[in-house]
Amino acid sequence: MACEQWQAQLDAYLDGELTSEAMRSLDAHLRTCQSCSADALARVQFKRSIKNAGMRYTPSPELRSKVQKRIGSGPRRSWNIAWKLATAALGLVLIAGAVGSYVGHERLRQQHFYSELADLHVATLASPNPVDVVSSDRHTVKPWFQGKVPFTFNLPELQNTDFALLGGRVAYLGQTSGAHLIFQVRKHEISVFIFPESSASWTPKDSKVERRQTFNVEQWNRGGLHYILFGDAAPEDIQKLSGLLKAVEGS
Amino acid sequence: MPLFDQLYNFAHWLTQDRDDAEDLVQETFAKALRGFSSYQQGTNFRAWMYRILRNTFLSSRTGRKAMMTVPLEQDEDGPVVAAVDTKTPEAILIDRSDQHFLQESLDELPLNFREILLLCEVEEMSYQEIAETLGVPIGTVMSRLSRARRALRDLVRGKLQGIQKG
Asked: What secondary structure does DSSP assign to A54-100, as a single string?
């Protein structure tokens, strides 16, 4: 089948509306076809952006209590029971749907997570002003984040190591602000992302250095924060830097 | 209260006004309460609630006005395949800080495009549920959704290009 025919099914695929058989064959095609999988990824990103932008308005507490009172004093006694039954049925449908789409989209979610990190890393380094706080002094960089990110973290002493701190900036992942620090080791830049644990749509477990989107990545969770090291430096260097960061977290 | 937050969000997107959205949600729950006997157990409860909200909105003055700006779609029930978007969308990289462009664009979309995108992407309704909510066949859901996505993409792209030029 030509790519164009596969692409015609992409929206239905991502909306979870293909039969499982059609899903499997499209799945297999995406694994081998770079242009279709790039297309799918762009569509997923667009879907996610719409979702984020669409969750915009929240009701006021006054409206909630007004409506609640109205329902509470409703004329039908059976309403409450029926309402509960309907809600339970809805819950089941939602859970079944969620499980189904979770399985189907987990791979894409993961792909999306890493491509978002790659975007942040590459776009920052390509920028003429990659960092907003330019300093190799951890005592300057750390306080700069005060009031800009909703948490605090410690930075290691880098004297007598191969690493240098270039500076930091505020980054956004899953609508949450986090710290993006840039370290250098022998002309290679390594991004260190620190986000609250729950901010990513796909939260990976602690890992050793692995290869993602052609970069080396290591990540771990500690103290409610998710740390991600991302860069083209050698795995050993990434590991060394993660060792320094982990050591200082306890202090 | 089931669906309260989601219904409010949807109402605000439809009415584009906080007071109108609050009135609409109150009326929706009041109507649901009164008409609960007309809800058939086993059918889709969520679609039923959204249908009440939407119908209430469409019969209001703002709703009638919004509906008048919806362009006629003659080919809506035509073959679905022809309407499916096969053009590869350029990756629109929407930075979190650029998100207001997307919100602005959603606001500018005709009502029928805006509501179907919200039901699909925000509420994550199935095509069947959307069909029940809007009272249209599934084929129409698919073709309208595809057109809505394209329209939104074009609007956002236009805005982003506008910035680059400016």
From this structure: H------HHHHHHHHHHHHT-S-HHHHHHHHHHHHHHHHHHHHHHHH
Give contacts of B91 with chain A, Cβ < 8 Å.
38, 41-42, 45
Say if residue A74's pLDDT is above 70: no
- Write down the pLDDT at residue A202: 55
pLDDT digits (tens, 9 = 90+) for A143-191: 888 888 888 888 988 888 889 998 899 988 877 889 999 999 988 889 9
Question: Is a pLDDT exceeding 80 seen at residue A136?
Answer: yes
Shared domain for B53 and B91, answered yes or no, is no
Nearest chain B Cα distance for residue A175, angstroms:
7
Going from N- to C-terminal start, the domains of chain A cover 1-49, 124-249
Cβ separation of A97 and B126 shorter than 8 Å?
Answer: yes
* Domain A124-249 CATH assignment equals 3.30.200.100: yes
Same domain, B31 and B109: no
Q: Which residues numbered 211-230 in A keep a CB inside 8 Å of some CB on B?
A: none
Whether the per-residue pLDDT at A13 is higher than 80: the answer is: yes
Is the pLDDT at A83 greater than 50? The verdict is yes
The distance of A57 to chain B (nearest Cα, Å) reads: 5
Q: Is it the case that residue B78 has pLDDT exceeding 90?
A: no
The enclosing domain of B161 has a CATH number of: 1.10.10.10
Residue pairs between chains A and B whose CB atoms are closer than 8 Å: 141
Residue B139 clears pLDDT 70, i.e. is over it: yes
Domain final residue pick, B30, B45, B68: B68
Q: How many domains does chain B have?
A: 2
Please report, for residues B15, B18, B81, B106, B164, the alpha-carbon distance to residue B67 in angstroms, rounded to integers and kept in the order given: 11, 19, 27, 16, 34
Residues of chain A above pLDDT 70, percent: 83
Do A42 and B90 count as a contact with CB atoms less than 8 A apart? yes
Give A94's contacts (C-beta < 8 A, 6+ positions apart): none
Query: Can you tell me the distance from the alpha carbon of B24 to that of B20, in angstroms, rounded to the nearest whole number?
Result: 6
| CB of A102 less than 8 A from some CB of B | no
Residue B135's domain spans which residues?
Answer: 73-166
Per-residue confidence (pLDDT) for residue A182, from 0 to 100: 92
Tell me, yes or no, whether B149 and B105 share the same domain.
Answer: yes
Interhelix angle B138-165/B99-108, nearest 10 degrees: 130
Tell me, what's the pLDDT at B147? Answer: 93
Nearest by CB to A11, from B44, B85, B122: name it: B85
Domain match, B52 and B80 both: no
Q: Does B9 lie in the same domain as B84? A: no
